[in-house]
Amino acid sequence: MTRPLVEVRNLKMHFPVHAGILRRQVGAVKAVDGVSFDIVEGETLGLVGESGCGKSTCGRAVLRLYDITDGEIIVDGRAIGQESQMSLRTMRPTMQMVFQDPQASLNPRMTVGAIIGEPLSEHTRVSRAERIARVGELMDQVGLNRTFVNRYPHEFSGGQRQRIGIARALALNPKFIVCDEPIAALDVSIQAQVVNLLEELQDRLGLTYLFISHDLSMVRHIADRVAVMYLGKLVELAPRDALYDTPLHPYTEALLSAVPEPDPAKAGQKRDRIVLQGDVPSPANPPDGCNFSTRCPRVMEVCSRIDPEFREVQPGHWAACHLHDSIRPSGTTRRHTEATTMVEPNKESNP
Amino acid sequence: MPDGDTRNVLEVRGLRTVFETRRGEVHAVNSVSFEVKPGELLGVVGESGSGKSVTMMSLVGLLPSPPAEVREGKVLLDGEDLLQVTPARLRDIRGSDVGFIFQDPMTSLNPVFTVGFQIMEPVRRHMGLNKKQARARAIELLELVGIPGAAGRLSDYPHQFSGGMRQRVMIAIALACDPKVLIADEPTTALDVTIQAQILEIIEDLRSKLGMAIVWITHDLGVIAGIADRVAVMYGGQIVEHAEVFPLFNDPRHPYTRALLKTIPTVSGKRAAKLQVIEGQPPMLGAAPTACAFRDRCPLAFERCHAENPQRETVGPGHDVACFHPLAHTAKEGAA
């Protein structure tokens, strides 16, 4: 197997909470709390979860847009976890980002040409003519008309603005792009256009994506492997088909069953869908044991005491759940007895 | 689905709404007609800018005028034309006979009043209850929408509720005076899928309990497939296709509906290698339509589409389409 382009080990991003007159630190919001994954060159890793689960923070932390609390990040063979922001600048051309809201991430006072060309003048020493040529080339690549180069962002529609953001991310020939909800602000018919563009560019330029989204059906379309996040932690990571066909974690199961299907016949059968009760707990004050234990329909006694380990349950299929403790590949079965003494799940759910 | 009762509680005929802006007119709603029966849920789907919200806000005069102006049409609520009544009468109807749920519960609740006050306000205004009765009614409503510890939460402010809970409060307010028609404008769009599933369940439950008519606006075809009895598809300020939910999803006849259904990926079933795309952009509505709004993006457009605006014509029982060459029946028809 090829060496992963991106390796993330035990990534933690805690934001301090200050209170009182002296602004003493009284706690921390554990937005990302010990996340590990690899992304192989040329693949798309989907990162899904509900709002507030820490998926965007995770994406930004991987690119070191934050100074991370703890953990290791290796991108293209270089450990960037603890490097200073100044020395990271030489690394920036390799890793880029496409943001969620194209309206907010484009400077309204800059022309499209200036926006797309800015990374070039910032990181390279190309001449003006070369830069203009490269901007034109990039606009062709993302399907924008070259004649619009002197227009301003407000003159474009949402889908076109997202293309500008993609062109800017491509300017320096990156290897790795974090796409943070790139289609969430777009209409359905426009979403498909942007997703197809991202896929085409990946084929043509050999890009590697971390695709962050809350839209499970779109992630199923674009991702090769999918990671599910809940309250700052990964609960499941698996190849796409394995995750959607045989989810191992009860949260993934509930999330998938909550997605409305655009087919009335299926919607009718889905009456036995799992409806999770309650809301996501606050990441400043996560529950003891498993983070999902407060809403889990298959919660057991052990769940509120011991945080389950994120481990490879089947080859390539990782999950953090006590339900799968009995199948320990390493041979230890010490939690086997606990796993069988299941607490009766909530009445509506039938696993 | 309610049969037998054929009376329409809400009937909209030929509604046209125009915005007068400095850059000229915008024809947001063009001759929209639809009707809802008691206990029925009509889904209205369309992309942003297709005129879904403006249509619904025109019904009860929620649009600021100017710039908005309802030029033509009839809005019959139990036979009474809401476009002809006095502003005072309209104020009585809003909040009592017609309830509204908006997309974003944070911006539609007032942050400086308690939730209890905001639920009691319409009850006292429209039903003439005193403070004590209104309080009892508010508790009853919060329990109805599944807020635990209802009595204790009346004195809480909106920011003390989570997104899903706020949307439940909005539903409680909309239901406060037993409306005949509930208009829900993208009520779950701002919510996460697991919370959306909770809200959908509540709505289903309330519909069977209270039997009001619901108009549900959304851009999410998945949501519509699960809850609607009938569906109207809007494009460019017009209803381009209208049918019961099974024929609409299994046998769409308008090229736009079919294309829209093909662009969305699903979480189960076959995974397409490449997503189908509707090329181009939705139209700008600078003038009253003189041609089909979808012509520039339609793979089947021919001369007549550029010269004339197609009207809705019946293609099957309860199924009508505004297209000069509605697509043929598909083989999948038996799936229903």
TrEMBL record, chain B:
SMART domains the record matches: AAA
InterPro entries per the UniProt record, alphabetical: AAA+_ATPase, ABC_Ni/Peptide_Import, ABC_transporter-like_ATP-bd, ABC_transporter-like_CS, Oligopep_ABC_C, P-loop_NTPase
Top-rank taxon, per record: Bacteria
Subcellular localization(s) per the UniProt record: Cell inner membrane
One Gene Ontology CC term in the entry: plasma membrane
GO BP terms in the entry: peptide transport; transmembrane transport
Keywords tagged on the record: ATP-binding, Cell membrane, Membrane, Nucleotide-binding, Transport
Domain (ABC transporter): residue spans on this chain: 10-261
Membrane topology, as annotated: Peripheral membrane protein
Principal subcellular localisation of the protein: membrane
GO MF annotation, one: ATP hydrolysis activity
Cross-referenced PANTHER family: DIPEPTIDE TRANSPORT ATP-BINDING PROTEIN DPPD, OLIGOPEPTIDE TRANSPORT ATP-BINDING PROTEIN APPD
Name of this chain's protein: Peptide/nickel transport system ATP-binding protein
